[in-house]
Amino acid sequence: EDQVTQSPEALRLQEGESSSLNCSYTVSGLRGLFWYRQDPGKGPEFLFTLYSAGEEKEKERLKATLTKKESFLHITAPKPEDSATYLCAVRVNDYKLSFGAGTTVTVRA
Amino acid sequence: AAGVIQSPRHLIKEKRETATLKCYPIPRHDTVYWYQQGPGQDPQFLISFYEKMQSDKGSIPDRFSAQQFSDYHSELNMSSLELGDSALYFCASSSRTNSYEQYFGPGTRLTVT
Questions:
Q1: What is the CATH number of the domain that holds B78?
Q2: Which domain holds residue B70?
Q3: Which residues of B touch A (CB under 8 A)?
Q4: Residue B107: its chain A contacts at CB < 8 A?
Q5: CA nearest to A103, candidates A53, A31, A59, A47
Q6: pLDDT-based confidence at A104, cuts 50/70/90?
Q7: Residue of B56, B88, B105 lying closest to A95 (CB–CB)
Q8: pLDDT tens profile A25-59
Q9: What is the CATH number of domain A3-108?
Q10: How many domains does chain B have?
Q11: Which of A49, A96, A99, A104 to probe the B interface (max B CBs under 10 A)?
Q12: Which of A27, A82, B77, B86 is deepest in the core (most CB within 10 A)?
């Protein structure tokens, strides 16, 4: 069965304190790994798609990387506005996304 | 840029009532997805439509049905509502020409009392 596991569940950071979130996956045929940001009560906001091991993508203070078994979301010098839940999802067919439980990041000023 | 539109944003229903949620995808997107997110949980895939045909089905109860219309908007119909149906319902859309990246709407918060 396809499985997506995110760690840690929660992360509290001081402003400027860089850190990484982990997403490990077990799927029969990965057809894309997605990172989303979700604020409370709002829809997930698309961040990145990664397709193959070794691929990296960056957006402002966020950088996503992919290996054959896991993906990392690195947050460099975070600011309070980076506080959110970060969701990882894998696509195993043309349609369905399977999400992890998410990592809730809180950045203190 | 235009985003996914969902209506209503909030809905309060009583047990055993019926609810209809609407989704208007991003222009030129041909695929629509429905997800359910309970409190503190990750989004769970319900159903998807490609070019007005059901393309995949997840953990959608038999009490729920959905369809995609000729203008690509979609409706999720929920009958015999139960307390456990209270959740955020998200619609997402994508285009086959854009690597299947799914863009989510703001959601409909359904409360069943």
A1: 2.60.40.10
A2: 5-112
A3: 4, 31, 33, 41-45, 48, 50, 55-56, 58, 88, 90, 92, 99-107, 109
A4: 41-43
A5: A47
A6: very high
A7: B56
A8: 998 878 899 999 999 999 999 999 999 999 999 99
A9: 2.60.40.10
A10: 1
A11: A96
A12: A82
- Confidence tier at B109 by pLDDT (50, 70, 90): very high
Q: Which residue of B has its CA nearest to A100?
A: B42
Nearest CA in chain A to B96: A94
Q: Grade residue A77 by pLDDT with cuts at 50, 70 and 90.
A: very high
Confidence at residue B88, expressed as pLDDT on a 0 to 100 scale: 97
H, E, C per residue of A19-57: EEEEEEEECCCCCCEEEEEECCCCCCEEEEEECCCCCEE
How high is the pLDDT of residue A108?
Answer: 97
Task: Give the pLDDT of residue B113.
Answer: 97
Mean confidence (pLDDT) of chain A: 94
Q: Which long-range contacts (CB under 8 A, 24 or more apart) does A23-27 make?
A: A23/A70, A23/A71, A23/A72, A23/A73, A23/A88, A23/A100, A24/A69, A24/A70, A25/A69, A25/A70, A25/A71, A25/A88, A25/A90, A26/A2, A26/A69, A27/A2, A27/A3, A27/A90, A27/A92, A27/A98
Residues of A within 8 A of B90 (CB-CB) are: 43-44
Considering only CB atoms, B42 lies closest to which of A34, A87, A95, namely A87
Does residue B99 carry a pLDDT above 70?
A: no
